[in-house]
Design a protein that fits this description.
With 619 residues, the protein is of the alpha+beta class. The chain is 38% helix and 19% strand. α12 packs antiparallel against α13. The radius of gyration is 32 Å and the shape is globular.
């Protein structure tokens, strides 16, 4: 054998060995799931809440994922979306330590899989012409023992909530029973004749009401009851109106027994005005007798304004305006250290009130939502005025707490016993707390309404609801924690619902402050000119026949010139704002389009030169 042949054989054996090693490594590594998630919101990683829930499962759960894949009529984006959902489900299966088993089905036309998808009630959409063609499915079925639950359709519009929906589905079939929740409200949360005010309620209730009915044993409590049932895990009050002393006493005793209460109060309820046609100055609610006994005050006759949190609101024919009474709260107004608020990105509170004061002894006070340091109070009358008047008439007061948690031994608000109107008398009356209780107070009830929380979307012929902020996530987190069922609280939305351009908001706020300052100068100048004209008019002699004296005419001309100069400065403020925003946008585009590719190219060239020099040094 020649040396050349020996080299060829050795090379061939080496190639085969390398191929065998690569094949073996591929087989070994294919069983591992090693990934690094570099996205800002870690959208490809299960949240801690999901992992906690999966570890707590004490019974197996089977997930049946029906998703159309094969067929020429299946769009490529749809297949990619299906793959992302399947990756999430595989991750859930892997993290469950065997408690979750995933089964994947492709419901092709006229197949057994399609027949089962239809039996489970999964929603399909025909993509053919005139109803002739393939029907696409993407739905999920969960089963555990005799319990079964279905997500008929997993819409791409709701992809940022898929993890939460899947984990809630798993939890619903794995839990032994549903928590119990009592509801007292003056608003049509459940629809129909729910509102005790006799208001014109819509046929269908709010999305929040339907969620509560689906996930809790919901009991509607009448405002006339004298005692809160002891089997309730928590009580939910939404905009309590004209609360009688008997109900206040019942809530007082419930908390002394260690109860849990969530109360949504409101200084000006837009929902009540829309539904019951009540005047704005009567559309408020409070629990003053109770919360004052706890050392807390609620600004039931004043609204909170916060210019940095002002929301752009469409005012109809008059256009749109940034209303400081509609608070769009983001970081740092949302407490990042509390489990119910840690993963919230944006909460909208229209016409909210605040909670002040020092809690009573043996009570802890934890803010959940707050304003910035520019918070101020405004009476409800001025809340109906234009935004510039609101800012001018507000009373600065600094940071205001819009949602708080109280925990501990609550003092009684009825030290002299039950009110005379209590009938029948309760079986036992407590004068002090037997065990710690918990109360969560929120200074707005309107944000629970669909109008301020969700928008409908159509997918596969079904009407789904897409969140426009984290209002309902916040509400459901509170209920889940207060009913002792906090497994779902830590499951965040996958990616931010609203990612505002905070730098633009800062520029707009700075321009607003300059505008307001110039406007106030103009109004002050107008008042001074009017006063000067009045003085000149009074000083006019009786034989003066002309309407205006030369001094008056000169004063008017001077005022007109000052007004012209001020208005020109206001235009400059607007022009500079637009210029600053456009310049900021150009800088961002330059970074995205030019700078980043330039950095990558520079790194590539530098690395190539480094390798070339290193190779030359070896030679």
């Amino acid at each position: 054998m020649t040396q050349r042949s020996s080299v060829k054989i050795t090379s061939s054996i080496g190639v085969l060995l390398v191929f065998a090693i690569l094949l073996l490594a591929n087989l070994l590594l294919s069983t591992l799931r090693l990934r690094l998630d570099f996205t800002e919101d870690r959208i490809h990683t299960l949240s801690k809440g999901a992992e906690t829930l999966l570890r707590s499962l004490d019974r197996p759960v089977t997930l049946k994922f029906y998703a159309s894949r094969s067929g020429e009529q299946v769009p490529v984006p749809f297949r990619q979306y299906v793959q992302r959902i399947q990756d999430l489900l595989r991750e859930i299966e892997l993290r469950s330590n065997g408690n979750v088993v995933l089964e994947v089905y492709d419901p092709r036309p006229d197949s057994d899989e399609e027949e089962w998808a239809q039996k489970y009630g999964l929603a399909g959409q025909n993509v053919g012409i005139a109803g002739i063609g393939q029907t696409l499915y993407v739905g999920l079925v969960a089963s555990s023992g005799a319990n079964e639950a279905v997500l008929p359709v997993l819409s791409p519009n709701l992809e940022n909530r898929i993890e939460y929906e899947v984990m809630r589905l798993i939890h619903s079939v794995a839990r032994p029973g549903r928590p119990s929740l009592g509801l007292i409200t003056s608003l049509p949360v459940l629809g129909g004749g729910q509102a005790p005010l006799g208001s014109r309620a819509p046929a269908q209730g709010w999305f929040l009401g339907r969620e509560l009915q689906s996930n809790y044993r919901l009991t509607t409590l009448q405002p006339t009851l004298a005692e809160i049932p002891s089997d309730l895990d928590a009580v939910l009050l939404i905009h309590p109106k004209n609360v009688p002393d008997t109900l206040l006493f019942a809530l007082d005793q419930y908390l002394l027994r260690g109860g849990r209460l969530i109360a949504y109060l409101d200084p000006l309820s837009v929902t009540e005005q829309d539904v019951a046609q009540t005047p704005y100055f009567t559309a408020n609610s409070n629990l003053d007798r109770l919360i004052e006994a706890w050392g807390i005050r609620f600004t039931s006759e004043h609204l909170v304004i916060d210019p940095p949190a002002a929301t752009v609101v469409n005012l109809g024919q008059t256009g749109s305006d940034r209303l400081p009474t509609w608070l769009s709260l983001r970081d740092p107004s949302i407490n990042p250290d509390d489990v119910v608020t840690a993963n919230l990105n944006a909460v909208l509170l229209p016409f909210a009130g605040a909670f002040e004061g020092q809690p009573a002894d043996r009570l802890t006070f934890e803010p959940l939502l707050s304003t910035s340091s520019q918070g101020a109070l405004l009476d409800t009358f001025n809340a109906m005025q234009p935004s510039s008047d609101q800012l001018r008439n507000a009373r600065p007061i600094g940071v205001q707490h819009l949602a708080v948690r109280l925990h501990g031994h609550f003092p009684t608000a009825f030290p002299n016993g039950p009110p005379p109107s209590t009938n029948p008398a309760p079986s036992s009356v407590l004068a002090e707390a037997q065990r710690p209780g918990t109360v969560i107070l929120v200074g707005d009830a309107d944000h629970l309404n669909d109008r301020f929380a969700i928008r409908p979307v159509n997918f596969f012929g079904q009407t789904l609801f897409e969140p426009i902020n984290d209002n309902l996530v916040f509400a459901l987190n509170l209920v889940e924690q207060m009913t002792g069922n906090d497994a779902l609280i830590g499951i965040r939305t996958r990616g931010a619902v609203d990612r505002p351009f905070t730098r633009v908001i800062q520029l707009q706020e700075q321009a607003r402050q300059r505008w307001q300052q110039k406007e106030e100068q103009l109004l002050q100048s107008l008042q001074e000119t009017q006063l000067r004209l009045t003085q000149l008019q009074q000083a006019r002699s009786d034989d003066q026949t002309v309407l205006l004296s030369p001094e008056q005419q000169a004063e008017i001309e001077a005022f007109r010139q000052r007004r012209f100069d001020t208005q020109r400065e206001l235009k400059d403020v607007r022009r500079n704002l637009v210029r600053d925003i456009e310049r900021l946008g150009f800088q961002v585009k330059a970074i995205n389009i030019a700078l980043m590719p330039l950095l990558v190219a520079t790194f590539g060239l530098g690395h190539a030169l480094y390798r070339r020099r290193k190779a030359a040094a070896k030679d």
